[in-house]
Every structure is written in structure tokens, then in C-alpha cells.
Amino acid sequence: EFSKPFETFVIAVNDSVKPGLSEAQGTNVKALLHFKTRQNEPILVKVGISAVDEQGALKNLQAEMPDWDFERVRNQAQKTWNAALSRIEVKGGTQSERTTFYTALYHTMIAPNLFSDVDGRYRGMDGKIHQSKNGEIYTVFSLWDTFRAEHPLMTILEPERTIDWINTMLDHYDKGGLLPVWELAASETNVMIGYHAVPVIVDAYLKGLTDFDVEKAFEAMKASAMQDKSDLNWYRELGYIPADKEHESVSKTLEYAYDDWCIAQMAKALGKEKDFHYFSERAQFYKNVFDAQTGFMRPKDQRGQLLEPFDPFAVTEHFTEANAWQYTFFVPQDVSGLIQLMGGKAPFIAKLDSLFETSSELRGRFQADISGLIGQYAHGNEPSHNFAYLYNYADAWSKTQQRLKQIYESWYKAAPDGLAGNDDCGQMSAWYVFSAMGFYPVCPGSNEYALGLPIFEKVKLHLPNGKQFTIKARLNKAPIGFYHRAILNGEVLQKPFLNHQQLMQGGELVFE
């Protein structure tokens, strides 16, 4: 809609004006509108969109912008965003760090996007128009990225929307037979690996967000894990995916094992003993691609033979946007088991040190997604995102802090190139929001956060339940990077970890 009628118009198709044409379709269609205006008179434009039909777009437009008061709309948008961003207050740090933090927090709130119309209609995975019965329907689920920190952050800040997102996923299951992998505009792109809707659902449920059909959710998770699909058939038969039969075999094996662990946790919570034992066993399949001799996760063929030659710096078809360095540590569900595989805490720490300190050279195929390198740690892509926190599991919290300081200083700043890679629907930014506050969800579904290196002197979380959780960093007592202890509500924590229940109860966490 326009703030005043236009007098004439012409349409161009493929940059060729078509006199007399009143409508057109195509990929390069333009319209030129002529208005009669006074000098410097502005023309205002309102645009409504809908995935359903033109009538839906008009209803959305009329509901959200019923008048032409531009200042009202702008002020309301500013007020809404200020309220959202004010859920976390920070004090201290530099101006650049504060700008970076709130930019990151803003990024985390852009996706998923609202997909249903104001009247509740939406286009489903089956291509048909439906009426929503369980809240609003959303789109843009970049789950391979966002299960790691974006969705866990939203369980804290946006619990009601989290329920809508889960109900949207279950709607996709109803109409498409499976949970979404990477959904876009009611279409499954299948561009990434894993069934990472699972950890999003399990993480929310175990945090007390249960206002969805839990039995259907469990059924849907099992459907994803048990689907008749070549790589999963091999995975179930051999306990790993053979590299001579499937691409991305190592990455798929590791990520399926994590997702299976999440299903096991849900089964345990629901009293489904048989499913708990079955998926717990599958969660250990990560061990089947570990090579003790080299200390890396490696591709195997159908006969169980390791592929040769092997180069951990080589980016190959056996890994998803990564190499062996960048996937070997992806066992969030059983870090203690990985430590044992590597020979204990000291060798594990040494291996992590090597990850950050070895050459940043990449061999093999070119992969633009591998960016933000510190050694072979690739912060510009998601598989590496929890690696700095793994030192905590080997009683080396100071090294976690050291690595986080490197990442902060190298790959986040208030500038056009202030991110190490694609923000991936908020995940790159959610990592910073969590980390800058001083904790991170290494393993969604565990209800546990690993403590790290807070950037700000004081952070105040205004929780949806009306409580507040305050984090203080006593910088005058400990130079940044060398906090020696954390105190929760007056009691010294014996390990550098915090659980979700402690967070949501409100209180005070002090680093010193």
C-alpha cells in the first residue's frame, strides 16, 4: 500500500518495458509508479507478506500497521527491541565489548521467523493450508547450528516461543513424517546432517518446558533415529557409518551418537527403560571411529579397516565442513569417556593444547566454512564451538579461560568484520552471549553449563519467572583469564559447572 494513489505505472519484464501490461510473473519483473507530489513530499510504503495468499498478506498488514503513523511504528519497534534486549543487563567492559554483546543478543532474536498469519493460517510441510491449533508457526530452523547454543539460550530468555518452535517441529512431523533437519518456508532442505531437532526438544523438556505433546515428540524422535535411510541403516548395523559407503561418515557417526544420547535422556525421564538402554548403547558408537594410535576420529570402511593414508589436516568427504582435528572432540554426551580414550586427563589436555597451537594449514579440498582459525580450532564454523570448555572436564578451568580470551580477542569485535564466519541464524552470536556472561551449554540435554571467562564486571539476567540471576566478576582480585574460584549464593563451587535449575532459581554467581 502507498500513502497516496499513484497516477500511472508501467511494468518491465527482463528490463524490457511492456506497455499496457497490468500484471506479470517471472524472476526479473519490475514496476515503475508515477505519483503527483509536492516538492519534497515523501511517499510512504507498507508491505505485507504471507506464505498463504494475498488476503493473508493484507490481513497481516492491517493488523500490524493499520495507519500511516511512521513515527509510531518506529517508536513501537524501538520499544519492543529495547524490552527484549533489556532482559540481560551488563555493566563494565569496554564500549566495544558492550556493543558486540548487544549486537550478538539482537542477532539471536532474528530467527526462527514467524510463518503463520494473524488469523492462524499457515502453509504446512504438505503444501496445504492449515489452521494453527497450538500457538504460532515458525520457519527457518538451522538446527545443525542452533541446537548448540541458540536454542539453549532461548530456553532461558524465550520459553514461550521455544514451545511454539517445538510445536512447529511436531507439526512438520505430522505432515512430513519426520522432524525437521534444516527447514525453510515449510520445505525440508536436508542440507546438513544429524537429527538435531531432537536435542532442542529434549533440552527444553528436561528444563521444565513441557507444554507440548510429549509422547508424540518421543515418537517423532524415534522416527528420525529409526528411519530407513542408507547411512542410518549402516550405523545401526555396524555401530558406525562406513566411509566407503557414505559421505561425511565420521561426522554423521559422531552427531548421530550425540542425538541418540539425547533420546536416551528423554526415554529415561519418561520411564521408557527399553528405549533408554537401546539409545544409550547407540550413544557410545562414537568410540567405533576413534583411533587410539593417532588419537583422532577416523574414517573406516565396511570391513572395519581404517582408511589410509590419513592426514588430520585434510578436509575430505569424510567430515562435514571440517577435518579430523575439528571433529575429534565432538563427544559432548560423554567427555569423560573421550578423556579415557585419549589416555587420561593429562594426554587429553595436551591434545586440546595441540588443537589450539598447531599449524592453521588446511589441506585437501577447499572449504569456505572453515574460518576463524586458532591452530586447527575453527571458530567460524559450529563443530568447534564447545571445545574451549572441554578443559573444565579435565580439571583445567584456567586453560578454558585462556582459550576463551584468545577467541574473544581474535574473532569478536564491533566492526563489519566482527564475526569469524556466518552467524548461522544466531548460533555464532549465541556463543558470545553465553560466553561473555561466563557460562556455556557444552551438552544441550544435560541441564549443565560449563563456567568460562566472564567479560563484564556485572551481568543481570531478568528471568521470565520474575527472578534475577546476577553474575559478578571481581576483576580487581584476579587478572582476566585467571579466575580461581566461583561462588554460588555464598558457597564455593567444587567444580566449574552450573546447572539450569540453579540458574532459574535466581541468585548470585561470583567469579574471583
TrEMBL record:
<dbReference type="InterPro" id="IPR050883">
    <property type="entry name" value="PNGase"/>
</dbReference>
<dbReference type="InterPro" id="IPR005887">
    <property type="entry name" value="GH92_a_mannosidase_put"/>
</dbReference>
<dbReference type="GO" id="GO:0006516">
    <property type="term" value="P:glycoprotein catabolic process"/>
</dbReference>
<dbReference type="GO" id="GO:0030246">
    <property type="term" value="F:carbohydrate binding"/>
</dbReference>
<dbReference type="GO" id="GO:0005975">
    <property type="term" value="P:carbohydrate metabolic process"/>
</dbReference>
<dbReference type="Pfam" id="PF07971">
    <property type="entry name" value="Glyco_hydro_92"/>
</dbReference>
<protein>
    <submittedName>
        <fullName>Glycoside hydrolase family 92 protein</fullName>
    </submittedName>
</protein>
<dbReference type="GO" id="GO:0000224">
    <property type="term" value="F:peptide-N4-(N-acetyl-beta-glucosaminyl)asparagine amidase activity"/>
</dbReference>
<dbReference type="InterPro" id="IPR014718">
    <property type="entry name" value="GH-type_carb-bd"/>
</dbReference>
<dbReference type="GO" id="GO:0005829">
    <property type="term" value="C:cytosol"/>
</dbReference>
<keyword id="KW-0378">Hydrolase</keyword>
<dbReference type="InterPro" id="IPR008928">
    <property type="entry name" value="6-hairpin_glycosidase_sf"/>
</dbReference>
<feature type="domain" description="Glycosyl hydrolase family 92">
    <location>
        <begin position="57"/>
        <end position="512"/>
    </location>
</feature>
<dbReference type="InterPro" id="IPR012939">
    <property type="entry name" value="Glyco_hydro_92"/>
</dbReference>
